[in-house]
Amino acid sequence: MRQEVKEVLQENKNKEDRESEVFGELVEVVSTKSTSLSLLTSKDRDFLLSPTGTQPNKTKDGAVFRDGVDVIYRYGASAFPFTEERLQELKREEKERYESQTLVNLLTNRDRDFLLGHPTLKQVPVNSLTGKTVGLYFTAQWCLPGVKFTLKLISIYHKIKETLLAESKDDDFEIVLVSSDRGQTEFDSHFNTMSWLALPFDDPIAKTLTKYFDIQGIPSLVILDPDGKTVTKQGRNLINLYQENAYPFTEARVELLEKLMDEEAKNLPPVERHAGHRHDVKLVSEGSGGGPFICCDCDEQGSGWAYQCIECGYEVHPKCVRAVENGPITDA
């Protein structure tokens, strides 16, 4: 319970930090652009910082505000004057950056062309990752779901590396930590639990990557292909679903795994008695009442097939079901 309270407080602080950053960007807009100071009134500030607020009606100069926090957080002062035309222009520029992205331009700046390895002071050139499938892992030591997923990811990371080595394949897999830790000491102890690489603590590129990939929560795993292009932002979900078999996380690989899962589901019982729940749970797919969910047993994401209790809103991965014989089950 203490850890859960700590995590909620930390999430609230993160939200406050984000709103503070957005308001700072708004001040920059007002300070550097020719616009009215009325934007800084409490009413407008509350509107712009509302995560769901929209302003559907255009102003006389064509300005349209929608999802103020996201727009200003993502684009900063460059979003001015917030017209539909300007937002579309920014999206086109963003698309061009995605299409031309490489590992080097994502992970380096004029002052640094390396990542941290182990021991922590070891410097690993970013260009040494060229030709590898790379996961950008956004997490922090204070994030309880991140701590839990990191343990799984460490195991999956080693299994993927071992499989590639055993099969003598030319491709390779690496992970880069993009940390949200609050201090150098916390970062050091966190990174020392991992086997992969990391951006240095408090490197400005970490914040740039968070915005660039539109990371809404941690832990999150973005997968890049050997050319540095984005394969998927759903790396965490794919690992939860398919373990090491998710590699190399491509669309073709996921389609194959989905077909295999559909075949396996044909042999699953339509109804189970799960030790973690007091009612029977029914096998469902996305086409028969299921959909994306958070597993009530392992607390990780799921999609596709699940065992579900509609009455309680309870869903679990098929692999998480602990079947019991018919009889009384202790309330969950």
TrEMBL record:
Gene3D superfamilies: Glutaredoxin (3.40.30.10). It catalyses: [protein]-dithiol + NAD(+) = [protein]-disulfide + NADH + H(+); [protein]-dithiol + NADP(+) = [protein]-disulfide + NADPH + H(+). GO terms for molecular function: protein-disulfide reductase [NAD(P)H] activity. Its EC number is 1.8.1.8. It holds the Pfam family C1_2. SUPFAM superfamilies: Cysteine-rich domain, Thioredoxin-like. Signal peptide: none annotated. Residues 73-262 form the Thioredoxin domain. Coiled coil: none annotated. Keywords: NAD, Oxidoreductase, Repeat. Belongs to the nucleoredoxin family. This is protein-disulfide reductase.
